[in-house]
Amino acid sequence: MRIRDRADLAGLHAAGQASLYPPVPRISVGMATCGLATGAAEVFDVLRTEAAARNLDIALVATGCIGYCQQEPLVDVQMPQGGRALYARVTPERARKMLAALAEGVLPAEGALGVMPDGTAAALPGVPGLDALPFYARQHKIILRNCGLIDPARIEEYMARGGYDALARALSDLAPQAVIDEITRAGLRGRGGGGFPTGRKWQICRDAPGTPKYVICNGDEGDPGAYMDRTVLESDPHSVIEGMIIAGYATGAQEGYLYIRDEYPLAVARASHAVAQAEEAGLLGPNILGSGFDFTLNVVRGAGAFVCGEETALIASIEGGLGEPRPKPPYPATHGLWGCPTIINNVKTWSSVSAIVARGADWYRSIGVENNTGTVVFSLVGKVANTGLVEVPLGLTLAEMIEGIGGGGLDGKTVKAVQTGGPSGGCLPASLFHLPIDYETLTAAGSIMGSGGMVVMDEDTCMVDVARYFLNFTMAESCGKCTPCREGTRFMHTLLTRIIEGRGTPDDLDLLEEVARWVKATALCGLGQTAPNPVISTLRYFRDEYEAHVTGKRCPAGVCRNLIRLVILPELCNGCGACQRECPAGAISGEPKQLHVIDPAVCTRCRLCYDVCPTHAVVIRAPELSEADAGVVR
Amino acid sequence: MVNLTVNGRPVTVPEGAHLLDAVQAAGARLPTLCYHPALAPYGACRLCMVTITAPRHALVASCAHPAEEGLVVETGAADAVAARQLALEFLLSRCPQSGTIRELAAEAGVTSSRFGEPAPEDADELCMLCGLCVRVCREAIGAAALAFIGRGATRRVGTPFDMHTDACIGCGACAEVCPTGAVCIEDRGSQRILHTWHTTVALHPCHGCGRYFAPQPMAFLTEMMPEVESLWTLCPECRMKQTGRQWIEQGPKTLPGTP
């Protein structure tokens, strides 16, 4: 139906409430990419067919991601009489058992991770509230407010949770300038990582001469290990669309583009569907909500280059040109798409905008800290106990994030460092985990906020190897336009490879640092200017590891293949043969129940034997030295 | 007009100018490779780095940075000098056979590179990816026959699939603007062979001497601009001879363009 005014909106609001709280059990299966990757589709099918076979009346819904990706497939069961719980790692077999319980009119007991916040009525005995779990306790969901709770394909469910109220408020109660003032007063900063004040950007665009103006959503998320934007687009696309319409109204733009990387097919599909729904509802198109304001949105699929996440390259890509950055200034706010004033913001910024306009700047300012208001989303991954999508107020410390929400190191290992901001970020040591997460502090410490990747590293991680890993990425993704990024990243990668292979010299470290600082200072765009961050930060905080590689020719973490040797300790080997079976190179010999031996000439140092040995008889030692001299590296 | 200070000297440049214009107006010299006054700022080679010392501190590529009122620019600041030297050292490592790059490097005090030699198959590489050929073909000529291929370290310039392209009109602007002589074009008989672009275009003969001189695909120009008809019928030498003859026989006042 076409929504002409606020009364129509209220009608859909009621329809959404009925959909969210049906008179039958509502079973929501998390079917964002993370859920689908772990078998959510199969679980969904089992629930559908078995419920039909049992003649069980349920409302089965495919929702997005609720954040605890490690525990996928996640299923949220809500009883009409009030009980509601979240179930983790649901298998088809468990799904069948859940239906059996529902057939008896009770919440399933097995596998409940936590009781949902609004499901207190029939709380399961012994199951904690979801908000009490360490993973969720410190979280504050604004950007992810609807993710995993609504069916992203149903606009009315978004509306039932307050969606499009912000647009209605803006169009009927606020002048365009008042919308910008609200965003400015809220203190929102660009969640793509740059942290530029969003209100100021909009003001520049609004004041810029020239028409038409454009609004762009940057959904070209490309950092390894980061998937915040994907999740929002897959789980709650309307929150982004609403923010963009509001920005169009505020700045005088009548057309917008959602640029989504093509490697996110589900995000493209759900965003396209949401745009079509909004058009059908009259929330996009001419005369929105009877205000006289017109706005249209187009979905553009990204062309497969990391650099297209850089705003000027992204704009060139939409224009049909080569996705390469151009020098700034002039900035897109004055000279953007087709040379016209253009606002370009990240997915998470757009989702924040709709929340701010709905609830007001004062509410938003009360979250976070001075100059760093609101919340930020991280994808917490790596060697940490709890992984997933985490939204926290700015100002939380790294320790609260990693030790608290993340639950510390994986398998009880010690966390050594954390890398924020994707391949362009820096590695911060555990000694700095007391630092608060905000734009200025992270930058001063040598990292960046970035788009929200947070990779935790433990004692098994070699920091030189990490620096080379990220350089390998930026080197391959550099467009090659400017000399520093093209030649500099390649040379740094060559030098790091030399060091890792044990051919480095102490002079190499100085040269590495000199080149890294030059690339950072002189590269054309953000990709090149931040590409050296992993090198500079590891040289700053983990120089001892570099020195061990170049002077001692050893890798303290026992990672770099040329600098380690695997040895079986006779006193611990019980001759079980696990290492021999696992060894892909056939380097291990030994009779059953007898001592096994690794032939160093054949061994490829893949460390599989080290990982599988039940008695920890396989140890990593420095090469070429007597065992007494070298000692156990770790 | 925009007023700024370069190396302590006040200079005034027109609205829309860039810092490089101001630097040149101040009589200072900077190395450039990707800059061309006829093309839009590109900022790729990073040779023309200068330091803005007031009202803020910034290291910028002067060719692409707008000249702003009141900026104070130093071309000899230590960070700018070091940045230019490193860029040249890297380009020297990429194109050790390029005389242009060797000269620019030597002027900046760089005579050798710590960044290694090119791979044997690239030992004679002259292209340093300034993109002038690609840009002149697209922006100035409008043919867009050339483009960048690949990215990062494998980036290079070429025609689609490295094959003959009919989009090329054989004008030779690419070779004309190339600062390092990387574009190889040869006129052989009735053909112009653009070796670098795997492309051959037919040449049009001079009505005077019969020598082939003008690329046939550029014939459209005579329709667009009939006044250039004489450029099309006679080769430059025959035109020169004709002009000389006209001068001698009829006096200079009969020449076009004389008052």
Describe the structure.
The complex is a heterodimer of chains A (634) and B (259). Chain A has 26 helices and 20 strands. Chain A has 634 residues and is α/β, with parallel strands linked by helices. Chain A folds into 5 domains: 14-132, Glutaredoxin (3-Layer(aba) Sandwich), CATH 3.40.30.10; 155-359, NADH-ubiquinone oxidoreductase 51kDa subunit (Rossmann fold, 3-Layer(aba) Sandwich), CATH 3.40.50; 377-458, Ubiquitin-like (UB roll) (Roll); 463-550, Up-down Bundle (de novo design (two linked rop proteins)), CATH 1.20.1440.230; 564-630, Alpha-Beta Plaits. In chain A, helix 7 crosses helix 14 (347-359), helix 10 packs parallel to helix 12 and helix 11 crosses helix 14 (347-359). Mean pLDDT of chain A is 94; it is low at 626-634. Chain B has 2 domains: 1-125, Roll (Ubiquitin-like (UB roll)); 132-247, no CATH class. Chain B has helices spanning 19-25, 78-94, 99-107, 132-141, 173-177, 220-224, 229-233, 236-250, and strands at residues 2-6, 9-13, 49-54, 58-61, 72-74, 147-149, 156-158, 185-188, 191-194, 199-205, 212-215. In chain B, a hairpin with a 3-residue loop joins strand 3 (49-54) and strand 4 (58-61). The longest helix of chain B is centred in the first third of the chain and has 17 residues, at 78-94. The two termini of chain B are 34 Å apart. The interface between A and B is medium-sized, with 33 and 36 residues.
